[in-house]
Amino acid sequence: MAAHWSNDTVTLFTTVDEEGELEHASYVVVSDEMKHGKCSVYAFNTAIINEAKQLTLASKIHYWSDGAGKYTLVNLLYHEHDFGAEASWSFFESTHGKGRVDDAGCEVKCVVWQSVLENKEVVTNAKEFYCATKKVCKKIHMLFVPQSSINSHSKKLEQRWTDCR
């Protein structure tokens, strides 16, 4: 159990892709990036959209989130250029921790923790956490986005945000 107390922190970014009223797919991005900033959100959304494009032919994406950051709105202006799909965005006033998206994150954490308790996995960093999720989370699309991938977006995004001021 010592690994539990000496591990690195892991970021989980969760989404639910809904098509129609009944079909949905849950996505959880695992990352070793701890800032949770504007570049992270863009990189996580990019990974999810690229994965979802392999499963569906969506021409429009509607986002729901619990915060309306100014950088989110700038990225919305470039969405069709970046991803080949129109986008709109709605914001919840205060639902942090209470939605279907949060259920996916909770499930992932619980099943990985259960694997650690059963000595099936030793998880000490984000990559090991991701590898464990791939074994035990069969109903959730798991993605790994390393900090280096997030950093690769920063130059383009910083220029974009500067131009929109």
Describe the structure.
The chain is of the alpha/beta class. The chain has a single domain, classed as Nucleotidyltransferase, domain 5 (2-Layer Sandwich). Helix content is 48%, strand content 21%. It contains seven helices and five strands; from the N terminus they run H-E-E-H-E-H-H-E-H-H-E-H. The protein has helices at 2-5, 38-53, 70-77, 79-83, 100-117, 126-136, 147-163; strands spanning 11-19, 23-31, 60-65, 86-91, 140-144. The strands form two sheets. A three-stranded mixed beta sheet has the order 1-2-5, with helices on both faces. The chain has a two-stranded parallel sheet with strand order 3-4. The protein is globular, with a radius of gyration of 17 Å.
Strand tally is: 5
**Poorly predicted spans:** none
Termini separation: 50 Å
Name the average pLDDT.
Answer: 84
> β content, as a range?
15-25%
Give me the CATH architecture, please: 2-Layer Sandwich
**Helix percent band:** 40-55%
The CATH topology corresponds to Nucleotidyltransferase, domain 5
What is the count of DSSP helices, taking H or I runs of 4+ residues? 7
The Cα radius of gyration reads 17 Å
**Broad shape:** globular
The CATH class is identified as Alpha Beta
Structural class: alpha/beta
Query: Major sheet: order of its strands?
Result: 1-2-5
Order of helices and strands: HEEHEHHEHHEH
Biggest beta sheet attributes: 3 strands, mixed
Domains, number: 1
